[in-house]
Amino acid sequence: MVLGGLVLVMLLPTRPLAQQRPVITIAARILAPPTARTPLAIVVASEGGLPRNTYLRIRGLPQTVALSEGHAIAPGVWAIPLSVLPVLAAIVPIGAQGTSEIIIDLVSLDGRVLAETKTSLVIPVVNQPPPASASAPASPQVGSAALASPAHVAAPNPGDRERALSFYSKGLELQERGDVDAARKFFERAADLGLSQGAMALATSYDPNELAKLKVVGLQANAATARKWYDRAAELGAAEAGERLHRLGAR
Fold this sequence. Notes:
The chain is an alpha+beta fold. It has helices at residues 143-148, 158-176, 180-192, 196-206, 208-213, 223-235, 241-249, and strands at residues 2-3, 6-7, 23-25, 29-31, 37-39, 43-45, 55-59, 66-67, 71-74, 77-81, 89-91, 98-107, 113-123. The chain folds into two domains: 23-123, Immunoglobulins (Immunoglobulin-like, Sandwich); 155-249, Tetratricopeptide repeat domain (Serine Threonine Protein Phosphatase 5, Tetratricopeptide repeat, Alpha Horseshoe).
């Protein structure tokens, strides 16, 4: 603009560039079958970098589900360092089922939530394999190892299985209330009737590794007892029992 021979330059206010918020990426639905380690595949992206010691807070997990990394800070709530995200997995025990909405927050050390997203954790019902047909040809057996194989463990009859599931369900109910000693008795009765879930749940209640992950206070671990029931669970066909035994052996 020219005014009285002077040139005036009008400076319009500039709009500051929008600050890019961090982004958390995860699948909208995660299928996590029992006895398996399910990768969570969480990715955190930020163009401007992140404050030091930023971490993920994962909320809404079923209390029976543990994560392979990080630590529990409340029932169903875990704090996860960003450095372990490439190997982070959910560990789902036998007997768990249902769908849970999981909330994932990116949190700074001073408690600010920098980003948030959600996903659904779907734990499908896993049916026990049906007993072999009486008309099926017998499998060849070689030595005592074959006799000890889970494939040769007799399946419980329908009546015993129904009772075993009832005992197991009662054990889970007592465990949720915090009465683990009483829950153990029902898990043992279920295991004695040939239910692998009962043996796994009983072993887990004594396993120092699993109790440490869940930050259980006041519950006595016993590695020898845990091994005994993991062995029994393996005989009954529980796939995760071998991995749990391996971890106990590394202690």
